[in-house]
Amino acid sequence: MTKQFFKKEELPITTFEWGDVVNRLEPKTSGCETFVVMDVTLDPGGMHNFHKHVDQDEIIIVLKGKVEQWVDKNKQILNAGDSAFVPKNTVHASFNIFDEPATLQVVLAPAKGETGYELVDVAEEEPWKSIR
After folding, report:
1. Pick from 52, 65, 49, 45: nearest CA to 112
2. What is the residue range of 67's domain?
3. DSSP tag of 131
4. 7 within domain boundaries
5. For 45-97, how does the pLDDT look when each residue is reduced to its tens digit (9 = 90+)?
6. Within a domain: residue 80?
7. Where residue 1 falls among pLDDT bands split at 50, 70, 90?
């Protein structure tokens, strides 16, 4: 039987130099293979640099704060309540260029692998390494 309820204090947290990722729903803990849900906190100056998910669509929802969001070569400032759709195999990035932490909820589908998502880092490739 799959797990149906998830208490905040039970959720796995991964800390990076740019912030934290809480894996709210992932295949290895829930059995869900349809989608994955993560809560991402970007500290001021933090970023999830340019990358893509080859076989996954993604929606990024800003819950708190604001971010400079890139989808392909398009950029917008997203505030709390705003969102961005990222089609599969599309390069994107989130930058917190502001003075307060930003909290995002990210949903990717379909789930891939044990953690639910797979990514290809393209931050050091052109045009992404010099676009901003």
Report:
1. 52
2. 14-130
3. -
4. no
5. 999 999 999 999 999 999 999 999 999 999 999 999 999 999 999 999 999 99
6. yes
7. low
> Does pTM top 0.85 for this prediction?
yes
Q: How many domains does the chain have?
A: 1
Give me the pLDDT at residue 107, please: 98
CATH number at residue 29: 2.60.120.10
Confidence of residue 8 (pLDDT cuts 50, 70, 90): confident
CA proximity to 116, closest of 52, 27, 15, 6: 27
Within a domain: 49: yes
Q: What gap in Å lies between CA 96 and CA 93, rounded to an integer?
A: 10
Residue 4 lies in a domain: no
What are the b/e assignments for 62-90, b being 16+ CB within 10 Å?
Answer: beebbbbbbbeeeeeebeeeeebebeeee
Strands in 13-72 per DSSP E: 13-16, 19-25, 36-42, 47-52, 57-64, 66-71
Instruction: In whole angstroms, give the CA distance from residue 71 to residue 73.
Output: 6
Distance CA 68, CA 95 (A): 5
For 67, the 3-state DSSP assignment is strand
